[in-house]
Amino acid sequence: MITKSAKNLKFACYQNLLKSKTLYMTSQEIRQKFLDYFKSKDHLIVPSAPIVLKDDPTLMFSNSGMTQFKDFFLGYKTPTAPKIADTQKCLRVSGKHNDLDDVGRDTYHHTMFEMLGNWSFGDYFKKEAIAFAWELLTEVYGIPKENLYVTVFEGDSSENLERDQDAYDFWKSHISEDRIINGNKKDNFWEMGESGPCGPCSEIHIDLRTPEEKAKVSGLELVNNDHPQVVEVWNLVFMEFNRKADKSLEKLPAQHVDTGMGFERLCMALQGKSSNYDTDVFTPLIAKVEELSGKKYTGILEDEKDIAIRVVVDHIRAVSFAIADGQLPSNGGAGYVIRRILRRAISYSYRFLGMKEPFLFELVTVLQQQMGKFFPELQKQGKLVTEVIKSEEDSFLKTIENGLIRVEKLIQQTMADQSKVLPSEEVFELYDTYGFPGDLTRIIAEERGLTIDEKGFEAEMEKQKQRSKQDSAQKVYDWVTLEEREENFVGYDKFESDTYITRYRKVENKDGEFYQVVLSNSPFYPEGGGQIGDKGILENATESFEVLDTKKENGLIISLINGLPKDASAVFYAKVNATDRKNSQANHSVTHLLHEALREVLGTHVEQKGSFVGPDYLRFDFSHFNKMTEEELTLVENKVNQKIKESIALQEFRNIPIQEAFDKGATGLFGEKYGDYVRMIQFGSSKELCGGTHVKNTSEIGHFKIVSESSAAAGIRRIEAISGDKSEEYFKNLEKQIIELSQLLKSKDVVKSIEKLIEDNTSLKSEVDALKKEKAKGEIGDWKSSYELKGDKQLLVKKTSLDAGSVKDIVFQLKKEIPTSVTIILSNADDKPMITVGVSDDLATNYQAGNIVKELAKEIQGGGGGNPGFATAGGKNLAGLENAYEKALTI
């Protein structure tokens, strides 16, 4: 057993070693020394929470170190220890904290960054937090005291907040008073968001300038003035208030400490650099980009090449960690944010590094080498991260190539209209519909002597933002607390329960006015773990309300109802929609059986990567790099149905230590953050950590049927399936369709009859094609003799009812056989107008088919294109072919 004095002696020796001026600290050593220091101060060291938040409706991502501890500050959960330290992965790309547009253009802003933090939950407060910070920075890390400044909250009369005199007095014992600066509410009163825990804070700033620069201007004048070498390195937040929805402040139940130190900035200071990107946090990634691109990084702020490299090495970190923590790129929500970050990196590398092929995925290995020791999820999910990024690169580079064709058409049209400005609506459509970067359109336009309508483009962008805000806008009022009662979830055992409303709040959105309620005994399962939230009825003796949805927020189970009871304090009866719940829990239980079957058939590399469980169907995403064969799907389906037939009883472990669950063989969800105690669901050999609702016996599932198997993302396959009532309904519909087909075919052997139909159809199609060719041959001779001499060139304008394929074949033949010719064919096949233009090779440089067809297509209200020798256009106005014919004669 180590005595306290021995521990202190050990720490003193550790300090002396660090004070050595010859000791260079790598970023890994800097991170480790932070954790070691606070471990020596009796803090529990905990791992970083996932960067992606699954069960917090107020945030998509962890944007600060305190996010995972929010429930502790609010008193909803009991902390695992009174003093904690960690390094937390953070992402600031949306909402109030959004640094995305600054990344690459300065030396210190990032999308993903690490926040080193120490936390006290009702234990120590300002005095100790200040002492720890000062000792660590000056004694452990050896930062010269004369390079440091601190700020304290000056107070705010509008909120009756006094100056933080305590913090000032504590700082006086460590630093001279002329280095303690008053800070306003914006800089020195920290708030998590529009509502939530908050309090005064004390920032520590470091002056990294040269002695010559310091002699000219005092660091006092540069603190909080966006100077790249006078930067905030640590923020000590003294959490003592809760900001309510009505903007008022209320005291928290206890005083807490929440600190956050920017790891990348700390490395810049300790490694003697003037930019975060010059530290070994980024230099290995930069070196790899230099190797792959052939471009040299010089660190110049205004150099577009260097900006691009900074964007790439920053963004690859954010995207890799998000994917490793369970968030795949997609077209909505958090997935859209990740896709946007990745596409920003691809766009910069395409434009300024000349990278026309995927290469970002090759940086993942470097990132693993740098950070895999502290963040093992990077190692475990490395193959998935690499494959997903490569797939996204392939896809977006194709988008860019296709976009370049669209931009060229837009430029040609603009020039044809004798304009110098690309219209904002079309430029925005390229960006919004086709994903083509607006700034890339701008660069291409400028190279051709054109501009884009910048104001119009920004106006279109603002319209889109407003539409998005209106769709998601929601005003949430403060909670109204009724009688204090214990709040329990009873839905694992019953579908109905007597209950009281313990608190309620009003919610307004685009659909109207609703109320959220918390119940003393709630049978309603809150959305989570892939399973949708319960619906049902909440009623008393005189009133009945529809429960529209149920979610979980800050540990509270919240049901949304369509009105406010006249007497909210009355006794209520809560009833879950039993049919939907039974179907949902059958689908949830069968998801566990499916997971196990997939691992048995495909291999233990299969891991769950996402799921949806509702009453009508289930969706299951899993890691696998090949499309499943029909044989594999059948085998998986049979294995699941065998488990259903075996009538396996549920074994439920509601509150067991997480390690015990893992020792029993339980698997956890991808990217999930678990507590010390968990719930484990077991059906025979299937064992998973899960908070969802389940059947009591697999026989209740009835039957399992896979409906589809597809790709969800690179390295991720998706199965959609049904069970129970829906499976029975599926087979009934299938049987009905077979009966109807049998009646139509007048045969009981449906397969044989359809094979005969296909055979007959193939034979008839061959005959029709032969007739078309004969008809086309007859036309060619007539058309050859119909060319008119126009000066020294030959023109043919012809109307026909031939189909598009036949016309194309003839035009290609004619433009080869008839020199110096332009061939224009106007077709009305199937009552659809079509214009086809062919230009012989000797004229194609001066008479481009694409320009001709575009002009004629105006008459049929259509559009099209092609190459200089051949082009087509379809349209809507069949009658316009006559005008197109007359116009064509004048070419």
From TrEMBL:
UniProt-recorded name of the protein: Alanine--tRNA ligase
NCBIfam families tied to this protein: alaS
Location of this chain's protein in the cell: Cytoplasm
Designated gene of the protein: alaS
Q: What does this protein do?
A: Catalyzes the attachment of alanine to tRNA(Ala) in a two-step reaction: alanine is first activated by ATP to form Ala-AMP and then transferred to the acceptor end of tRNA(Ala). Also edits incorrectly charged Ser-tRNA(Ala) and Gly-tRNA(Ala) via its editing domain.
Domains (record comment): Consists of three domains; the N-terminal catalytic domain, the editing domain and the C-terminal C-Ala domain. The editing domain removes incorrectly charged amino acids, while the C-Ala domain, along with tRNA(Ala), serves as a bridge to cooperatively bring together the editing and aminoacylation centers thus stimulating deacylation of misacylated tRNAs.
Its catalytic activity? tRNA(Ala) + L-alanine + ATP = L-alanyl-tRNA(Ala) + AMP + diphosphate
Q: Which GO terms describe its molecular function?
A: alanine-tRNA ligase activity; aminoacyl-tRNA deacylase activity; ATP binding; tRNA binding; zinc ion binding
Coiled coil spans: none
- According to its UniProt entry, this protein's organism is Chryseobacterium potabilaquae
Q: Which residues bind Zn(2+)?
A: H588, H592, C690, H694
Listed Gene3D superfamilies: 2.40.30.130, 3.10.310.40, 3.30.54.20, Bira Bifunctional Protein, Domain 2, Threonyl-trna Synthetase, Chain A, domain 2
Name the GO cellular-component terms: cytoplasm
CC cofactor note: Binds 1 zinc ion per subunit.
Alanyl-transfer RNA synthetases family profile domain: from which residue to which, for each copy? Answer: 25-733
Main location per UniProt?
cytoplasm
Task: State any GO BP term from the record.
Answer: alanyl-tRNA aminoacylation
InterPro entries from the entry?
aa-tRNA-synth_II/BPL/LPL, Ala-tRNA-lgiase_IIc, Ala-tRNA-ligase_IIc_anticod-bd, Ala-tRNA-synth_IIc_core, Ala-tRNA-synth_IIc_N, Ala-tRNA_ligase, Ala_tRNA_ligase_euk/bac, DHHA1_dom
Specify the superkingdom.
Bacteria
Give the cofactors, semicolon-separated. Zn(2+)
- Give the Enzyme Commission number: 6.1.1.7
Q: Does the keyword RNA-binding apply?
A: yes
Q: Which SMART domains match?
A: tRNA_SAD
**Aminoacyl-tRNA synthetase recorded as keyword:** yes
Alphabetically list the UniProt keywords: Aminoacyl-tRNA synthetase, ATP-binding, Cytoplasm, Ligase, Metal-binding, Nucleotide-binding, Protein biosynthesis, RNA-binding, tRNA-binding, Zinc
